[in-house]
């Protein structure tokens, strides 16, 4: 398998630049050192023969979160071989894993990888929230006692910590046809939840707010809608669904960012990269277009005339209003102006539910894989593109609203996850293929290694290169711990591949010190 070498030509250049009096600084390229490898469980579930979406159900790109740190403890969630929801925790940096098993509910499938578990923690009241086992079905949700995460040493880590499974969040509201549950904290320490309503190629995306002061979910509302007519080289369709990248979350200025791709009913593939953001917690949504002037007051003022400043009409940038009321809501739709930031029709095999992150300056980044006209040369077209034509691409939005693209080295493996340090340096993790068949069009595999790439903000992330490969064989996609990454350690959850299809295997957490 071809890989780009780890040696940093950019670093060598910078060092010579300093010697010759150039103002650039000679700085080391980002690196990692493995400092831990722990087994959470030896009986983690894998899917049985005939699974159409691969054999992993623990560790998939659309889980948010499966591994997370809060208040000095790290938490993980997974299904065991009895198809029970399990939640593990350990006190950092090196405490043993403690696992509780919720035996009052059994996963409904042995073959559908969509039915994952997602976990969230509300900072304000320390509740741990779980949503699990749905692919277009009724919501399954349960929540812990308050203080479970804010006072971890004082609670008994057992199934009794969690309440019963329920099929609603906000009382009196329907939560049917649910897929891809996600939790994320808000800047004020509460929690939000997002999910798809409907099915692949025919669905909306909605969200709900949790308030720790009341312990209640409120304001269930649809944000992105399915309607509109789309036509490309594969034909036309009138409905679709958005596939959100992750993890969804807020930037340092309190802005909530969404990036996604569309999946049409017709054609069975994705198209375009879309972007919208909210400055009020997901109620009002803006497109990619940046302000054209400076906002002063509520209309033309003398000082504007004196300074030659123009009034910014924010209404021109608003593309959605999430009111929760069908009479007043304005959904983000296919034809909403200014939301499409990268044009890719379905011919190019754009993969869904990949990676996004916000850097310290509030700029949104995404890493996604697809083919291009150049990489397709010499290959026969297919829905997802052959392995030899796929590439990882890093897209990022500058402060003027312009999007830039950098290509990563290496053959494409699984869907990636992206992390950005306080200095702006970026890291990508993914399950890479040991065996590459350049003409194969498959997207699921079990011979994976864990690969880590990095790039520097100083070079505007044009210097992506592989900095570590951890041998497998791994079955799962790579999921990282965002909070622990911000603390200087890249923790990654990986599950080993089974010797025989359907057999239970080890679920591991690998820790890497991030070197300055």
Describe this structure in words.
The structure is a single chain. By secondary structure, this protein is mainly β. It has one domain: Neuraminidase (6 Propeller), CATH 2.120.10. The strands form seven sheets. Strands 13, 14, 15, 16, 17, 18, 19 and 20 form an eight-stranded antiparallel β-sheet that branches. It has a four-stranded antiparallel β-sheet with strand order 1-31-30-29. A four-stranded antiparallel β-sheet has the order 2-3-4-5. It starts with 8 loop residues before the first helix and ends with a strand.
Short description:
Helix content is 4%, strand content 40%. The protein has helices at 9-19, 302-307, 482-486; strands spanning 31-44, 67-70, 73-79, 85-91, 98-102, 117-121, 128-132, 141-143, 178-185, 191-199, 202-211, 216-224, 227-232, 235-244, 249-250, 256-264, 270-278, 284-286, 318-321, 340-342, 355-358, 364-370, 391-397, 403-407, 417-420, 426-433, 448-455, 465-474, 479-480, 489-495, 505-515.
Largest sheet: 8 strands, antiparallel
CATH architecture: 6 Propeller
At the third CATH level, what is the topology name? Answer: Neuraminidase
Which of globular, elongated, flat, extended, rod-shaped describes the shape?
A: globular
The secondary-structure class comes to mainly beta
Number of H/I helices = 3
Helix content: under 10%
Rg is 23 Å
The total strand number stands at 31
Distance linking N and C termini: 29 Å
Mean pLDDT: 91
Level-1 CATH class name:
Mainly Beta
Count of spatially separate domains: 1
Query: In what range is the share of β-strand residues?
Result: 35-45%
What are the low-pLDDT stretches, counting only 5+ consecutive residues below 50?
A: 1-25, 293-306
